[in-house]
Amino acid sequence: MSTRDGAAVTKTVEEIRYRIITGSLNPGEAVRQEDMARELDVSRAPVREALRVLVDQGMLEHRVHTGYFVKKRSATELRQIYMMLEFLESHVMATIEQPSDAAIVRMRAINEEMRSCVDSDDWSRMIDLNRRFHFEIFRLSPLTVVLEELERLWTIAAPYIAQKYVTVEMRRRTVSEHDGLITSLDPFDRERTSALLATHRMRRSDLG
């Protein structure tokens, strides 16, 4: 695969994943190669390869003679995903190190962007911003292999985590809880940050 082809596949993967995460493509919905190629202005080859990548990542499923569909998770599967997220996040939070001033600045900026979306009819940006905020914290941990798996699970769970933004109240509460997390990191208090994140996480799993 050429560098250009590889870049096209990567871009296509990111775009389709973003549509799934933000709910533009819903669980169980078909993803048609021809339509996606036309919408993204690429040939069918990178779309076909991107769909295979997303199957491997657990975002899509392939049905023989039928096509590709956004993976739909049962309540039992979601409980297992949340259980694994809780397990991995707890281990990561137990090992986070003191954030740099630059990291705190980034967290504040991300959360302010989220705050600007709270009262908006189009709050879809909050989904990606929320992920960025959390991984600013998670990446304070040296457990790089665990973080890779955590990112994969967050991607799978993203369409369901997004339900926490359905109402203005829920969006406002998320931003407020993020404020608390930042306060617990500056000055650095690992134990308090871990406890606050555990409470924040419970609200997420309740939606499953």
Account of the protein in words:
There is one protein chain. This protein is mainly α and 208 residues long. It has two domains: 68 residues, Orthogonal Bundle (Arc Repressor Mutant, subunit A), CATH 1.10.10; 132 residues, GntR ligand-binding domain-like (Four Helix Bundle (Hemerythrin (Met), subunit A), Up-down Bundle), CATH 1.20.120. 69% of the residues lie in helices and 5% in strands. The protein contains nine helices and three strands; from the N terminus they run αβααββαααααα. It has a three-stranded antiparallel β-sheet. α2 packs across α3, α5 packs antiparallel against α6 and α5 packs antiparallel against α8. The protein is globular. The N and C termini lie far apart (40 Å).
Strand segment tally: 3
SSE topology string = HEHHEEHHHHHH
Q: CATH topology of the largest domain, which one?
A: Four Helix Bundle (Hemerythrin (Met), subunit A)
Q: What form results from the Cα inertia axes?
A: globular
Estimated share of beta-strand residues: under 5%
Q: Going by CATH, what is the homologous superfamily of the largest domain? A: GntR ligand-binding domain-like
Oligomeric grouping of the chains: single chain
Q: Helix segment count?
A: 9
